[in-house]
Design goal:
The protein contains seven helices and four strands, in the order H-H-H-H-H-E-E-E-E-H-H. The two termini are 30 Å apart. It has helices at 5-21, 33-55, 58-63, 67-72, 75-84, 134-138, 144-151; strands at 93-102, 105-112, 115-124, 127-131.
């Protein structure tokens, strides 16, 4: 039986999201119920962002960015970089602990294959949004090929 490519891709994306969703957030900074709820919401956005990246949903991942990040990197540029120089699709990001680092910031650690790091989310207009670091944003300015090479993604 032959499985259509689009169904296989959806299956890989669903598996990545399920694997990422299985992790839990670490301790929150502060300890109040409001802090705990805010941390859970921020952590949920991080799960969505990394699930979309694992599944190759570049437009969806970009939609979760802060408005400042979206202005710095147009959606078309981000999508072009992802489509042209794909990272390892289907390899889930595994989220580690996360904590509030301020009233409007949350930091979460992650691993992806052999790479690890941490990322920031910001509370913007009442919603948690993914905030790529300045170095990541700068990698997209010269163009898609340059951004992908800086990320270490293979280019055709």
């Amino acid at each position: 039986m032959r499985v259509p490519k689009r169904w296989a891709a959806l299956g890989v994306a669903a598996a990545a999201v399920a694997a990422v969703a299985a992790v839990r957030p670490g301790a929150t900074h502060g300890g109040s119920d409001a802090d705990a709820v805010a941390a859970q919401h921020a952590y949920a956005v991080a799960r969505q962002e990394f699930g979309r990246l694992s599944g190759g949903d570049w437009p969806g991942a970009w939609q979760l960015w802060t408005p400042d990040a979206q202005r710095a990197v147009p959606q078309a540029e981000f999508v072009r970089a992802g489509a042209r120089c794909r990272p390892a699709l289907g390899v889930p990001y595994v989220l580690g602990g996360g904590s509030r680092t301020g009233t409007d910031t949350f930091r979460v650690s992650w691993t992806h294959g052999g790479t690890s790091g941490s990322s920031t989310l910001r509370l913007t207009a009442g919603q948690w949004r993914f905030a790529p670091d300045p170095q990541t944003l700068a990698g997209y300015r010269p163009g898609a090929g340059s951004a992908a090479r800086r990320r270490g993604a293979p280019c055709p």
